[in-house]
Amino acid sequence: MGEFPGKSTQFKKGKSGNPGGRPKITFSGTVRELMEAQEIDVAWTVNGKRKTLHVESDKNLHYGVASALIMEALKGNVGAVKELIDRGEGRAHQSITVDGSTVVSISEELVDAECEDPDAQSADGVPQEPSGS
Predict the structure, then answer these.
(1) Average of pLDDT values for 22-36?
(2) What residues contact 52, with CB distance under 8 A and at least 6 apart?
(3) Furthest-apart CA pair in the chain: how many Å?
(4) What is the pTM of this model?
């Protein structure tokens, strides 16, 4: 029979067997790594059909993505224009100043147009059907 390894090879008390822990893999880290590459090959399957994509840039993929966004903006894509402005100039700051003496009241009324009595509601707040007279 085999013998047990000696105490020198066992885990030490109070010391982790995996001091670095599980490697942290984040979406943003993956995107950053891919964007810094000069080319990537991606393959995936949709409804049983294999699709592939090869992207190559003479600098890095940041230039390719920025170029594609600019092309979309030039085609009239308002979302692309907004994204370029937000990324290039920074998002516009919105501030609201409220005076301590100001009272703001927000209410919402739901009235059934066919209901004779707009205030007629059941206990659960659902408008009642008009009664046939």
Answers:
(1) 82
(2) 41, 42, 43
(3) 96
(4) 0.42
